[in-house]
Amino acid sequence: MALTDITLRATSYPPLNTKGSALTYGEMDDNFIEVYAYLVDMNSGGGVPPYSIATGYTGTVWVAYGGKIYRHIGAGTSTGQIPTSYPAVWQEVTSGELTHVQGTDQGLDTGGANAVTAAQLKELVTGQYITTSLASFNTLAGGGNLKPNRIYAITDAVTYGTLLVHTVATGAVAAKAQVAMRVPDPAQLHGGLVWLLGETYTAGDLVAWDSLVYENQTGANGSNTPPNDAVNWQPIDRADPEYIDTTIEVVTTYAGGTFAVTAAHQPAINTDLGGIDMTGATEPQVWVEDDGVYYANTADAISEIGDLGRVQGGLIRYNSLRRSTVQLTKGLKGTFEGNTLTNANLTIQAGGEADITDNDITGATLVWASALVSGDDVTGCSINFPVGTTVNMRSGYGALVNVTASPAGSNAQDGIDITGVTTVNRTANGVCDIYGSVVLLSSNANETIDKIENDALLMPLRIAPNTGLTLTVTAISGSSITNNGEIISGAGGITLNGDRGDYMIVEPVSIGGFDVYQLTEYYTN
């Protein structure tokens, strides 16, 4: 019989049964017996774990024994002490003591394998973010007293921000960390860029330099950088609204009380992690710094700076990177400074020394097969090809200064010796992609050409004989093509005199499956 089986005489009280007439003595006895059995069960430990002679009891716990409830009051761990025989260890209580008052629990799984106290839970929730100094962090780590699974905000580990590290043990941190900092807001800067030598500014213009915002005071721009030109430029405090908050993901190692940042992902404008060792990173999407190199870059969320490898002996800074990929595969010694790369891919392979400065590179993929050598600078150039175009760059052959290159042509000049040959070999001096102006050289006074080979076919070519050379160009009709590289013209061949400054323009075209050159224009005096 259950409590719900109690029978009432006249009153309706669902879910109890109402008979509607006098109860028999047997029915009344059944009712009393059920109530009595329930009360006995409630006060005899029903629902309370039975006492076990093999269990060690510690702290406040309740057990059922001999139809009664006992609370453990012993000072230590009690094992084999039967509640009825040890009143100093066990106290008989009523079931009312077990009544749960909401919000008063002091623990979960008390006495179990997963026991945790309310105090421990509070510390876990409120103590996830711990602000500290590097010295204090080192003390905790050295003593094995770090709290695992916490974020420690170390305020003095990097130059211009807070290093956020995740502890994985009492003395160890995760490899991935973050640097939180306030950096110049590109939206408020003049042109969204850092200070530039020779740029025109007005009073009130803002520029970024070395992770700080500077305001122009005079409308003038001298030859010194803002920190060294107090007359024209004054710094703005980092707490002011000209800065924005940003977070950079970094890869770190921690040993001997020192953090080494080996990689930084998606660097923000003018980020300066001065004093941090950035040597030896190998992950993709990485800026690596070495030998005092630092950077001040702008990169949006979909820029990729890949496998920068090791950079030595120079600066990498002031770059504005938009949807760009930069790869220096364990190469480059020198300077990569003042560049704007948009939808571009700049690749420099291992070895060499180079200065690559002040470039505006849009759309194209620039690839150096074996890097540059000392003195081979790419300075003041505008290189603009459609996205996806690969432009192979020559290694170890002179400087490119103020070059403008696009599908319309290039003013980069290449000199090719054609002494005794009729074919112009465009790669005689190395890859030729960027060179749109060709000067033909010869130890003879007269030469004849009928073919141009090994061209990347990126743009029209301006071809001229050098002074002292008379050049005969043999051209054929479009219907007579038999080989790649032939020169075609409806007007036939021409003669160009180098002493007069004669030249011709040929444009790469594809006819009948052959890559040939259409003579589109020529100039003779």
Structural commentary:
This protein is mainly β. Helix content is 7%, strand content 37%. It has three helices and 45 strands. The strands form eleven sheets. Strands 8, 9, 10, 11, 12, 16 and 17 form a seven-stranded mixed sheet that branches. A seven-stranded mixed sheet has the order 18-21-24-27-30-33-34, with no helix packed on it. Residues 266-315 have low confidence and may be disordered.
Keywords:
mainly beta, 7-stranded mixed beta sheet, 37% strand
Mean pLDDT: 78
Low-confidence stretches: 266-315
Structural class assignment: mainly beta
Helix content: under 10%
- Calculate the terminal CA-CA distance, rounded to whole Å: 124 Å
Q: Describe the biggest sheet? A: 7 strands, mixed
In a nutshell, what does this entry contain?
By secondary structure, the chain is mainly beta. 7% of the residues lie in helices and 37% in strands.
Topology record:
Blueprint lengths: L6 E2 L8 E2 L6 H19 L18 E4 L2 E5 L17 E4 L13 E2 L7 E2 H9 L2 E4 L1 H9 L8 E8 L2 E9 L2 E2 L2 E9 L21 E4 L2 E5 L16 E4 L6 E13 L2 E8 L32 E2 L4 E3 L9 E2 L2 E3 L2 E4 L5 E4 L2 E3 L2 E4 L5 E4 L2 E3 L2 E4 L9 E2 L2 E3 L5 E4 L6 E2 L2 E3 L2 E2 L2 E5 L5 E3 L11 E5 L4 E4 L1 E3 L7 E5 L4 E4 L13 E2 L5 E4 L5 E9 L2 E10 L2
